[in-house]
Amino acid sequence: MYSEFFTNSDKLDSSAPLTAAPLTVAPLTVAPLTVAPLTVAPLTVAPLTVAPLTVAPLTVAPLTVASLTVASLTAAPLTVAPLTVAPLTVAPLTEFPRIPSTDDYTACPEYFTNFQQFATSGTLQLPVQYSSQIDSFNLLFFINGIYDILCAISILRIIHIPILGTLHLSVIKKTYNQNSMFSRVLAYWLLTYGIMRISGNNHIIAYSYFIEAMFFGNEYIQHNSVYPLSAGFIVISSMLLGIKAYFYM
């Protein structure tokens, strides 16, 4: 086939122009699109029929409570054994007119020797005068504690005793004691060492006096917040009472 093509091509006039026939394209005709109308059938809902609800009556069986029988309580008679108190035997107290001194030893050595034996014996009995001194100071500490408690509750206005409510505050300069919170804190502190002084424990009593002396001494020296005469009296008396309670009671 190829050879025929080349053979026929030799017969063509290579100088003649190549003419192409015009291309005729027939017009494209599109048929119109016809859409049929959409018909929706009506929705029919059948009526809902609810059967009536029948509730059977509730029958409650009667509650029967068995009768409660309480056995009678029989109390055995209380027998109290008779109280027997052993007779109290008090050893006789050897009385001395006073605590002997070195002058007594010079004047009467036997008297001083007897007192030493008395004081170092297994059954120590203090002379009447010395015992009364101890009792007097214990009473003084107790009364001082009650006084501090009364001052405290007067400042707190639990009771109304004007003089007791102002005694401790009058030692402090007005610049400081006008604060009501400070007054109440001072009252609680007074109440604390008032209770310490009625405790009967000599070391606790002594600590309360040492703390009071330290408070007023420090306030005067470091802050100058207390009146010097009143604070000085409190410091000296508290130190003396504290030493007495700690070392000599």
Task: Note down, in words, how this protein is organized.
The chain has 249 residues and is an all-alpha fold. Helix 4 (128-155) packs antiparallel against helix 7, helix 7 (180-197) runs antiparallel to helix 8 and helix 8 (202-223) packs antiparallel against helix 9 (228-247). The radius of gyration is 60 Å and the shape is elongated. 12% of the residues are buried. The chain is built from 9 helices and no strands. Helices cover 50% and strands 0% of the residues. The model is unreliable at 93-105 and 122-131 (pLDDT under 50). Among the domains are: 97-124, no CATH class; 127-247, no CATH class.
